[in-house]
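S1.2 Input.
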Amino acid sequence: MNKLLILSISLMIIYINCGYSAGGLYKSDEYKERKELKYSLFGKNDELSEKNIRRILNSRIKLKKKMKLAVISFEHESPRITNYFGYDYQFNEKYLNLNAAYFNVIHNTLYKTGRFIEITIVPKILIPKEMTINSLRQLSVRMQADLFLIYKTYSNIFSERNIFSPNETKAYSAVEGALIHTPTGIIPFARTHSVIHNEYEKHIDKNIRELELRSEKIATIKALRLLANGMSNFFGWQEKEI
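S1.3 Output.
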């Protein structure tokens, strides 16, 4: 069996098994009848008493109609990064533009919901060395952000060089994302998405490396759109039903 076909089957299983029901709890009548949780019950080390565990599990959170969102975006991870941009890739203009394009997928989709006054990327100098839910929440408080989004993208590429037909690539990309509700420390939305994208060599590709980079970019943007659309739907549910 063709190795790309085998890979496609295995990755499709991953794709199908991704959770798409994140945020569904907030649509239920049972959830809307719960008592609102207005502040954090977590201790200094995120410890919880049995009483507070029960309170959290039987409470609901309420999001403002207009909010500020702080965002931490981890650097995109791919084993081909140095092949594409060199070992000093972090200072490469094309690499920086690529990361900006990824963030814009999240920003533009969420801004269209009408729920956000401001969506701000957190400067690297503010990110704590040891990231915990508690430290991220404290950082979010300092930024007066109602919500905190943290996400990371991964990708890899598998290529086939053909003699009598255009070269072919199969790109795999995944994104993980989670929202933290600053007042309570609750994570109301968390989701992982995986995408497979097939691409063939075109006249715009000077070499196989450009084809691979283009394929990985398309796959990653597709994964980010799934995450962004899921959050967009989540905020729509919050506005209408809570």
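S1.4 Remarks. The first strand starts at residue 35 and ends at 36.
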